[in-house]
């Protein structure tokens, strides 16, 4: 029992230890290797890092609850792109012409609604057909991406609203708007998962679905709500990101699902469901972004980042397995 | 007994449903555009499906053994870039086996991690997707890779040549499909793949070396990926680093469309070929009736979900899921 | 005469290939503890699944008081005040004790929040009653199996239960915990709750129950007042006269020692195991679940590494690293969990049967299907396997026929040592006696057979010698002449343990 607790503690703290290690490594290595004069641990640099974590981070928080629930969502990248297009396109619609800057909340709301509905649609299909979430959202990944292209073909959709850009680039207490959103989402979903009946039931379903069913928990609606939440968060991520950039390519958001899942798994959420935490995912997101920035800081290019992240993901998996092996008495299967 | 016969009818429908759907599509497209059913068009569809198809053959083995492979797309980019690079450095005769060896080494690594270390295949291959992508970029220095003398090399034969009037990619795809179809359906190894995917514990209790079987499946998948990379490189004689990006999910879609269960233990090479062809013909048919390529994404979405739904519904004997 | 609080009337349930329940009735009075007994596979768990709404019956009805109710699912059962205490723990390990006890009905505050203070208060009140050493906030995953069982039991006390079903609740409890459990049952009883108590342990049945209903092969055998019954009559009802359970002693000559085990240990699972099996002999291993019998079999079959000791086959010491190793050395294992370990349910009968030798049955590079079919036909006839043909998926066969496929699979390998773990678990009486005869017949042909069974009549019936195990150790080895039921029970309960003392 003691060993189990030790490995549990190790696992829970691991992501933060890893972040610490990264900070030390890049600060020290940066002294020798960096081309720029600025220190890695510079406050502005760290604030920028948080801001850059936001788009993936917000979606990863959503993925955490879906995975804790025992499902997965591969369609988040496409949902992200659709929401972005709805946001930017709707601001130019003639019916909203008279609204002035009031079009902003309307467009936001539209984009968020579309995201939520697309997520809920996935959830509804998983619930009603009983087809595995992996397959349903794999299909949706293609289907939703097709819808993205239907808007504007292969052309980018652009619209810059300067009020919106100002808002997105604003810093409150030194912290960027996207970071505020990431923090707010993390806190809100942390609350949902640890404090509400819905959140606790989601854990129970992912942990032991049969037990949950036997206890009379209605599995379907819980799953659908969680899919709706991740759809909403994918849209929110798009809304935050594209308010600033103002232009979306139809291929935007591709491979986001992979980045997001990587962050969630690094953060300690079990791929089979039932265990994991929103805070851990937050750590996972930061760890990945630190790695990207840090490797950039010491002069490595994107290729190295991809290589390193992939290898770290596998290393974490091996480590996790070693910690969970019960020794020689285990059945050799 | 009434429920049993209903189930049987359902299972027949589920088994043949994909073929019926395929036939209906072909008829609909043929009626929509007379060009659709010409030999030229059919060849062009199969040829353009060949790369996806060859990869899907290997992934079929992995999926039947109860695992996933999300790394085939970036692995295919890797093989393409490597063979193009080596072509000019050491000549095509050596470049091709060298590229195969390197790709097989990657497949072997995945097979080791999933088979012998028993790690979750979804995450391992997700990590490998990223890692191999990085490897490819590092190898190429981020540059596109081109063969210097595009006119003078016989290397183009794999992607552009024809034999007996049939494009070589089609011959490779068909030949490999026939070979792997036999391996899966008729050899002891194929039987073991089904057993390991159907019930890994029972397979172990029957003396089957599960880890070795899974390892071999990933090796075969890597071999197929290398072949696909060869066709791709030979067809274009130049390539970007990201040529295979996103293909992993299309490949998986084709395999699932063919009726393989993600839980393992079911699926056939023949059905995967049908799955690949359906995707190819949908794309082609929609283009011919004047729709943009992206419409096929939406159509594919609907078809995948309907196909799998039909399958699970037949197995449980009920259309709607019993989830409360 | 009070009316029953819960009544199951004429329940019929058919699965493809099996009639699991045939006109079964059971009624529970308020304040009554009603034992439901029967051998494994008699239909107890199917009946309880019907009651819980997890299976829909093909005939008959469920009544609460005078109202007929349709159990559409667990929610319906719960709404009617029926609570299940499962034997297979249905707990979420990552959640706290309190959350598990109130799974599905966490107390709420505004905004869908969990009312933690109320939850902890209610839970601790229950835990206090159960006198357990953990509190509401402990993670269930950190508890021992016995304590997890107590959490499961605590669920019975949360709702306003009308009927509580205990399914083998004492399987993992210590004596002290059993006392607490029986107190809980007494309290429920005093409150007028009807209790269905499923157990194999006669001693408990006679201590706490009022009436006993017995099922056999899915058929209702009758209900008796516990006060008017004794162990023998109940056993008689459970087993019936159909099954020949006379003692067996070898009438044929024994051959050489086929397998010899000396000082074999595996960590905390079993220690210092010594035994040998001769050709032509059936050795039964008897003991409680968890006594280490299955683990020994798994070690002999290469699925576990022993920490000490040696295994000798035909006098030669061997190391067995994997099942493939074991098979190559002529050891076969018919495993305990037929569906999980023995068969690939989605594969057809033939492919399952030839699975271990598929590498050897080759015609060129391909599997020689003709040879496979020949093997299948041979063992189908020899073992009288009833299936429409080899193409039939194994998952569609009845339990008995499935077990025969597994046995056929190993007989076709012509093993030197055949290990059979729980040979007749969950199969009907007809198939049972066929399998018993088969095992005896194999011994007569010169096979060395190791049978692990938790059913005493079975062990007594098939074995030439019986090894009694308790808590990872061999207590005593009996010959079939000297063994008595009493001495056997004493040996497997750790009583009369001379060595441990």
Helix segment tally of chain C: 17
Number of domains of chain C: 3
Structural class of chain A: mainly alpha
Query: How many strands of chain C?
Result: 22
Strand order of the largest sheet of chain A: 1-4
Molecular shape of chain C: globular
- Which fold name is given in CATH as the topology of chain A? ABC transporter involved in vitamin B12 uptake, BtuC
Describe the protein's architecture and organization.
The complex is a heterotrimer of chains A (333), B (324) and C (501). Chain A is mainly alpha-helical. Chain A is built from 13 helices and four strands. Chain A has a two-stranded antiparallel sheet with strand order 1-4. Chain A has a two-stranded antiparallel sheet with strand order 2-3. The longest helix of chain A has 32 residues, at 2-33. Chain A is globular and about 75 Å long. Chain A starts with a helix and ends in a 9-residue tail after the last helix. With 324 residues, chain B is mostly helical. Mean pLDDT of chain C is 84; it is low at 497-501. Chains in contact: A-B, A-C, B-C. Chains A and B meet through helix 4, helix 5, helix 10, helix 11 and helix 13 of A and helix 5, helix 9, helix 11 and helix 13 of B. Chain A: It is a multi-pass membrane protein. Chain A: This is Autoinducer 2 import system permease protein LsrD.
Care to give the gist of this entry?
Chain B: Pfam families: BPD_transp_2 (PF02653). Chain B: Keywords: Cell inner membrane, Cell membrane, Membrane, Transmembrane, Transmembrane helix, Transport. The complex is a heterotrimer of chains A (333), B (324) and C (501). By secondary structure, chain A is an all-alpha fold.
